[in-house]
Amino acid sequence: MSSRNLHALPLFQGDSRHLLTGPLQFYIRVISFLPEPLINVIDLIWPNLPGKFDAAYEVSVVDELRFFKGSKVWAVQEQNVLEGFPMDIQSFFGFPSNVTNIDAAVCEEETGKTYFFVDHMYWRYDENTQSMDPGYPRLIAEDFPGIDNKVDDVIQKEDNFYFFHQSIQYRFNLQTRRIDDSGDFNTWFNCKNIGNSLPS
């Protein structure tokens, strides 16, 4: 994957693994019991989306995918862009006007809290009350010790957040509040097989 310089925007849902690759604009679904990933061109699935997204995350409680590009957010259910989108992230989430893009986002399934990472700060949004939690933004490195670099992407799997910076992924245990593993994200995502499956 590194040879193609793909920017990964991954999502998890059940036993399936979802990966968005920004510059090439593919939607890749990796399923554990299938030998090869399922690959679709984003423009074909969601022709009304602009592509080249900065971040994306899933809100399982409302069965939505949300895509970010600059200060805009799109909400999608299945193949449909929801009415009224795109919207400004300031009006939809309550970000201040100086936040003009989102680096990464993840919704913690157990709490319904969505974490938005912007530079070295993060915000926390309550999907149930549809409002920002008080006391934010906070420093990423303060609440996620060891995550000192800009967050390119983040996903949740079980009790862990996986933080991505360039080609490195860090597994952050949400119970111990510590990094307990790190490595090359190419291996973790089986990117060798994904790369071989991409259309030429």
Automatic annotation (TrEMBL):
For this protein, the record's Pfam families field holds: Hemopexin (PF00045)
Any coiled-coil regions, as ranges: none
- Full protein name: interstitial collagenase
PROSITE patterns in the record: HEMOPEXIN, HEMOPEXIN_2
User: What GO molecular function terms would the record report?
Assistant: metal ion binding; metalloendopeptidase activity
The protein's matches in SUPFAM superfamilies, at most eight in alphabetical order, are given as: Hemopexin-like domain
Q: Lineage in the entry?
A: Eukaryota, Metazoa, Chordata, Craniata, Vertebrata
Quote the InterPro entries the UniProt record gives.
Answer: Hemopexin-like_dom (IPR000585), Hemopexin-like_dom_sf (IPR036375), Hemopexin-like_repeat (IPR018487), Hemopexin_CS (IPR018486)
